[in-house]
Structures are given as C-alpha cells and as structure tokens.
Amino acid sequence: MQADEDILSLLEERGAQLAREAQRAVILQPGALGDCILTLPLARVMKKTLSLGGVDIIGHTEYTGILPGRSCVNSVRSIDSTQLHRLFAESGTFDLEDRDPLISTFDDYAWIVTFMGEPDGDFEQNLIFTANCSHSAEVITLSLKPPRAGRQHIAEYYVRQFVDQSDLTVDSPHIRSEDILISVTAADRNHGLELLDQAGIDVSRKLIVLHPGSGGRRKCWHLENFIGIAKSLRSSEVEVLFLLGPTEMERFGAADMARVGAAAKLAADLSLTDVLGLLGCADAFVGNDSGVTHLAAGTGLHTLAVFGPTDPALYRPIGPALTVFRDSRNRFAREPCLELQRSVVESLTGLIEKPPTP
Hints:
Strand order of the largest sheet: 8-7-6-9-10-11
Number of domains: 2
Mean pLDDT: 90
Strand content: 15-25%
Helix content: 40-55%
CATH superfamily of the largest domain: Glycogen Phosphorylase B
Radius of gyration: 23 Å
Order of helices and strands: HEHHEHEHEHEHHEHEHHEHEHEHEH
Structural class: alpha/beta
Number of strands: 11
Low-confidence stretches: 14-20
Distance between the termini: 71 Å
Largest sheet: 6 strands, parallel
C-alpha cells in the first residue's frame, strides 16, 4: 500500500513539473537595445525559478530579433503588430470584441511582465482584463528606471521587483558579472569574416573594434579620443575597425568622417546581425555607454566601456571580460582626454601583443 502511495506521489509531482514546464511567460519591453539586453537576466531568472517552458519578448524587433537561438529568450514579436496602444485607454472605456486580436496575443502566457504602464494604472488593469478573457494569468508591472536614490545595478533591480511582486519564496538572485548573455554562433562568425573581407580587414591580425556612438550625445566620449586610440593601436599586427551606426552617420560631418577614415577602416550602417558577426570575430571592443557596448560585453568579448555622465554602478554592461573607465568631468563629450586615452590603450596592450615565441 505504501509503495502504491509513493508511486502516486511521484506521478503527481512529475505531472505538476510537466505542467509548469508547459507554461510560458512574455515580457513587454519597449526599450532600445541596451534595455533589452539588461532584461535578459530577468528572463533567465523567470525561466529557471518558475520552471517555464519558454520566455518571449514583445518589443522592437530591430533590437530583439537577434535574441532567439542565442539567448534565454525563445521568441520575439514586434510591438507594432500587437495593438498594445489600445491598453492605454481609460479602463472604464476599454472594451474587447469577440476574437479580439489582443486576447490572442496573450492567451499562451501564464506570466506577463510589462515595462509599459504603471502599477494599478489603466494599462495594467486593461492588460489583466485582456489576459483573463481566455485564462488566468499573473500580470506584473515593473519600472524601467531605478529610483533616484537607488544604487543597485539595473538588471538586479528588475529581478528584485519581479521577486517582490510575484511573492516568490526565493531570495533575489545576484546577477553574476561573468554571465554570457548572448551566444555568437558559428554562422554569425562566418558572416562576420565575410564582412571583414569586404572592409579590407586582414583577419590574420588582432582586431579591435571601436564604436564612438550612443543614443545620447552626453554619453558619447569626444570623437578625438577614439581617433587617438585608433592611431595608437595601428601596427603591422593590429587591425582597427570603426563601427558607425545610423546615429553617428547623421551626427558626424564631412570633417569628422574624414578624420575617422584616416585613422582606421570603418563599417557603417550595418544590421544588428551584421554587428554581432563582426563582434564575434573581434579580439576587443571599445565603446561608450551604449546598446552595442552591452551587446559586445554580453557575448563575452573583452569590452572596454567608457562612462561619462551615467553611473556604471547602475548601468554597466554584464559580461565576463568587462573593463569600465569613468570620466565624470563636464567636458566628457566636449573635449578629448589624453590621460584616459592612454589608460584605454594600456589596457589593450596585453591583448594585441603576440605571445613570446617558445
């Protein structure tokens, strides 16, 4: 009799485990590339702690499209295809129709975490109503920005909010700085080699990628600093490649572009998949507090991140080979700093020197 009860208990436990693994979660993340990457530790914690079968993201696919197959995120959906704007209506005026596409957007999810709206606000209330039209789901609203007096890293802040609001009986996991958040595939590297060949880069040499851009001008270290680093690194053993996005192409004038081109080769206006391929072939990366810097660090690439007005204690990238430099002077974006240039070059020296011949 006892044996039968033990078998029944094991079957029930296994059934409960399978039921949990069949559950999925979705994160509504409207932010840019850096915000999406800093959300990955939260997705990983949710997946592990809740034994979920998958975690998806609804966001801007130009930033999230690289995540499935390379991270803990299983699939992504465009925020522009989901009619989420309707959820901002006053809750008293919000309504759904039969077979409403908003209902089908959430009918696969047992957990819905949103960075859109406010706790107890119209968006959250309408989202709860929409989800519960098809099934019972947990809806949690998180703040995208930390409190003014907060000193906790933003990724840990996201996890802490989730743990507190979900009433989980677990400690808030510590975000490990050595975690690799995004895996670069063999196909990515092969694509990167093709792009480097097109750019005239000798792939037998060490490759240092410099990205002088960021979404905010105040976070952009003066361009002359990157040009100075490029000139210092040039040798018969090293290739330096400037990576310029659409923002930099708009900001930089003809004189700036001429100075960049004279200092090193450049690759401009690439897709995020292209950028990932290039990073997969690089030996080191230097950038500002930007989404691409978070991407570089998240892949495990040796990343030197230069911070100015933003606090690296809160916003530093996550990765096992990260070095952070801080220049909090008001002139960070307006004037070059030779001292910090030298510090960056010195940190790269060990990476670009060939090991001694045995």
